[in-house]
Amino acid sequence: MLERTRDATTLRYDIDEAQLSIHDANGVVFAGSPGVVLDGELVTPDGSEARSADATLDDSTPAVVHRCRRDGGEPVELRLELDTHPSGVVVTMELENESETAVTVDSFRIAGGNVEFGSDARVYRHGYQSWTPTGALPVGERFPPENEDAAPMMYDLATDGETRTSNYVTAVADGSRSLTLGFLDHDRYVTRFDIADDSTGVSGVTAVCPADGYRLARGETLTSSPLLADASRTVSDALAAWASAVGERMDARVPETVPTGWCSWYHYFTDVSEADVRENAEGLNEWGIPVALVQVDDGYTTAIGDWRSVNDDFSDMGALAADIESAGYTPGIWLAPFHVAADSAVATEHPEWLIADEDGPVGAGFRSGEYLYGLDATHPEVQTWLRETFHTVVHEWGYDYLKLDFLFAAALPGDYHDETATRADAYRTGLSIIRDVAGDETFILGCGAPIGPSVGIVDAMRIGPDVDPVWETPGESDSQPALKNAVRNTLNRQFTHRRLWLNDPDCQLVRTTTDLTDAERRAFAAVVALTGGLNVFSDAIEEIDDAGRNLLERTLPPARTGDVVGVGSEEFPDRLVCDHPFGDGATIAAFNWTDEPATVSVSPEEVGVSSPVAWDAFEERAVSLDGAGIERTLAPHDALLVHLSEPTDRPGVTGTRDALTGGSGAIRSTSWDDGTLTIERADAPPVEALVSVPEGWSFDGEDLAGGEDGTRIFAVELEAAVTELTFSPPSELD
């Protein structure tokens, strides 16, 4: 018996029975068999030919080697290694081919047929790429199926499309028990979990590490991605720990500064022109909103794939980038580097560049009346084309911000020019070439991208579907453009922010000509501000009214990060908490994601404080709590946003009047010294601080409201980088 334990999670391997089991403090939560699929045949060890990886076989042995035989009698060796990890316990498999000929490795797998979660359990399903729906559903429930045209763009084509799958990581929770499983390395494999469940519970989970038909030569070895198991933490904490581990192993790129700015897509779509971009850059300048980016989206090329061939609405992409930069903004541009339309010059002149199988080019979806395909990034000529394309875009045209879309197209299952390449190999080869040409200083946003294999190359990742100017479109799948679908993924993937990259929740839309309600615009503004990801809006500047401008301004600067409460237990978590870096306080957003009015409440105890007074950010007024919380009846898809702080015997900062984050991102620090409160503003525009002043203290400022205990809230404009406020203590007034 091999055994490893970390915290309350134990991993055991019964060598004689060739059975792997995971235990929590209450017993077994998972039991299954390791194996490998070779040439379509599942090969599993039976324990009869097992030996230690070292000299002896006992409880301290780090690994065991099974000599396995295929139906034809040809031997292979499967090595299992158990280890501990700061986030749980880990099992890794290694295959050595001892047969006389090469074998085709389809996948490593651990099939669990004994999973201890019943009818009340929820399964956290993590999507394959940016747009694939992600969240926790009750056992037996499924996200709606994709339509045939969109399916290649939304889910992993290596799966059957029927089995419930979760890519890279998954979790099951039932009351106080939970199990989170996640692969740790994603540079070679597009990993997944196949989950069997119905309304009675989960009957099986199979961890699959696909090798994509890799030909393993005689004497060669192939190692799986390590599988991490965590039955000690809550699902939310375990997901965060998994992401931290993956980010560390794969050298995640996490820029300190989050991009903010304007994008052309959701107003102009493909009808954008050079004149439109210039007009909006000018509008931003006149407005004076402190954002850094102007990004040209789809609509400037003659065809998808022909990125250096611009249409008649654009004359000189280099001159446009120079003018954007002269206006004070970073020039950004959209490309889908691996996605090509059937009628593009790239596809028609170089059909051998396309990912294909025995039936011809592999379909990469149908969009805007066009069939689309994927480029084989292992082909030397494609690699040359990528280098030339991005040298032009970055170094000749001058675009320093790249939004790379439909990236999944480089990881389609098929036959690659490099026969040794897995799908992840091919994808990372192409993306790494782009990074190498663009340089480390160029900001790369991934979109429509396989999540795991992108880590370490992109700076930011779209983590959900497009927002679209509607809440939802009845009858469409949960991966399709809709604000509802963007919100679901943004909340359920928040744990990847600043661990794998910067998250991109997609653009805010605040113009009144969309089908979004005031409540929906307000709620998404809270999500964007408090989660701390990219903050980009996509309305024509001239169509944004005063209320819309005010809402956008209040989402700046974004928080560094926020915590979503309820991941793993709800499809739509309804609490978002942003701690204040300048004191013992926080901002809480409580949401009504239902389609009917609902009453929500916020209590200071949720964040461990006992504020006598709070600030309702959307109603823009101070509220006396008088020992209770705040309760509001919200419209469908609306939010209650409250700033809270821990009371002290001296004045302190509760939040900010004009920033939805309550000051996170706007105020760097506060300090107190003998009656003087010093507030250091972050590198951000002036803000209005909300200062709580206990009873008896004297202060000359705008008195907004008070609590039952005599605490008052004052508004103070922070115009200087450092502001000092002087208060008279109660003893001086006696």
TrEMBL record:
Annotated GO biological process: carbohydrate catabolic process
Organism: Haladaptatus paucihalophilus DX253
Protein name in the entry: Alpha-galactosidase
SUPFAM superfamilies on file: (Trans)glycosidases
Keywords associated with the record: Glycosidase, Hydrolase
Xref: Pfam families: Melibiase (PF02065)
Region (Disordered): 647-666
Lineage: Archaea, Methanobacteriati, Methanobacteriota, Stenosarchaea group, Halobacteria
Signal peptide: none
Molecular-function GO term, any one: alpha-galactosidase activity
Residue ranges of coiled coil: none
